[in-house]
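User: Fold this, then the next.

Assistant: Folding the first:
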Amino acid sequence: MSEPTTNSPDDVVIQPASPAEADSVIQPASPVQPPVVAGASGGVGTSAVARLLDGRDAGVWRTDIPGPLTMPDVLVAGVSVQSMTQARRVLTLLSQLGGRPLLVVVGDGRGRAPADSRALLTLVQPLVRDVAHLPYTRAWRTCTSPHGLTPPNGRAFRRAVTRARDACALPPLALPDRRR
């Protein structure tokens, strides 16, 4: 019969891996690095939001590409029913993977969002850290590069950017002064 083994002080004890280390599919963003900004779908303003948040533009968040997925810190969606439906799908999957990003909803026209979009937003609120609504910005519609964007100076825009930057623990952004 063999003798039972005991741990000596020189033995190395291997600790169980943390969930992030054990799962090579999910790679959480580092709190020291800039926030990872992903879009729920294309054309929703992901690049513009990434620029406003000094973040890393991850493009459209997709699960059909090989390799590890990056957990976004910020998810950008348009206010249309189609975009909010896609955002709900993405947020549902992210919540199953342990993520709770900030949701930035970008307005695509003047006036209120469609009732169905508002209902979808109510449904996804438990899945997100916070929601920031960026109002419609006419000049952004014709801009071809996020590097040429000039942030508007409206009060609603300032509130939305401040809320988003606070949620990402970023210092305030110097926005242009309000015109009178």
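Now the next one, as you asked:
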Amino acid sequence: MHSQIVKTITALSLLLAISGCNNEKPVEKAPLAAAAPVKLETFALQKQTLSSEMLLPGELSGFTVVELYAKVNSYVKSLKVDIGSNVKEGQLLIELEAPEISSQIAAALSRLHAQEAIYTASNSTYQRLLETSKVEGTVSKNDLEVALSKKNADHAQWEAAQAGYKEFQIMQSYLQIRAPFSGKVTARNVNVGAYVGQGAQAPLLTIQDQKKLRLAVAVPEAYSGYLKVGDELAFKVAALHGKTFKAKIGRKSGALDLKLRSERVELDVFNPSGTLLPGMIAEVFFALKSKEGTYAVPKSAVISTSEGVFVIKVVDKKAQRIPVELGLEAEGNVEVFSALLQENDSLLMKASEEIRDGAVIE
């Protein structure tokens, strides 16, 4: 009986609980707050002039350098100079000796005198026949023509003998090696008595003009367009601490080295005191200045992707990627080149790869 009452009470309790649950009103959820728009900073595109400095290595060399070799097989008879000697144009530097050349000159001179005598005789014969032929019937026309031919042939032989003699005289002049210009002897590779001649691997002497030097610099392709002939640049050398030198660009190669992808630029360095020496390595300071009428933007406005390099332009509050080419960088800014950009275009200050074409920009 008691257990029956307990079961009844439990059942009533469950019914009341279920009815109470059915009468409860559902709890209304508060609406989510709308996401605040992200405002991106923009700026107006303007033309700027950027300037930057670049440091490149260069090498000094004599403005004029020549290596002197022996033209004929011979022996060194005497040396008039040594390394470090200052020489003037035309000065005798080395005397060579070749006895066979002297014999050849004597033989050539003998042939020349012989041919001269033969020509003198044939010319005299022709002149007499010519004078005699003025009296009609004394000399046949054929005899006169034969004499003329003999005279002309002997004259040609005489001229050939003259040319042969001059040839040996020129060869004899090769035995005296003279300075082709004023400068300094920077290398000597022979001694008195050495056998020299054609095919020698090392030069007898090397002469360099040190009053004026060349400073050669390999300028990377990206910067070669910012330099022009006549620009003055500063440079230093490690051997002369604390000294800065200046020189002007004298010439540009006008072509890129296929291996280094750089252009050879030469500066003309005047060195009257001889302080600078050929072979010194210099550090050249290139003051690069952007060309007039170019656009520059903060580096943060440029994005580089696998598709290319872009800036983001805002047109009617929508993003538009503009492909650009980069130029000179300086003080956090960089040159940009594109036919799709105009002055006062609105560009994003901080570009991001996540911003795609057509994205709404507040």
